[in-house]
Design a protein that fits this description.
Elements: H1 2-41, H2 45-50, H3 59-75, E1 88-92, E2 96-106, E3 112-120, E4 130-134, H4 137-141
Antiparallel strand pairs: 1-2, 2-3, 3-4
Length: about 140
Amino acid sequence: MRKLKIFFVIIVIFNISCHNLSNDENKQVSNTVKKYFNSVKNSDFEEYKNLFMNNVNTGDKQYVYSYLARNYDKMNSRKILLNEPEVKDTIMEFSSKHKYVKYDFTNQKNETLTITLFFFSENGYDKITREEIIGNMPKWEK
């Protein structure tokens, strides 16, 4: 009976520590997402670029950044971008665990633009592994 009690105590402690670890990871992802949108809001391309795992100064990064900067006010019309994002877990690429944050934006013509930021634990949750934008960007902007 004593061994059974010790076993349950160990399981409870393990669950608490795992929950705290997950909260720390989500907090780190949340802080990175806030820095991402702050860099766009404050027109700081260097900060934006440094948030990515591979922060090479490529044309596609500059294009996406300038697009986000031009449309920041439209995207933030509901004042949600600097709030706590909802961090979700997913499994991708050979069963590796990732975290992601997804935003859906709808313009006046009811067209949707989706921005998803992916984070991989091996790269650290302070770096964005992949940025994915789905939607017709030029059409959404008009």
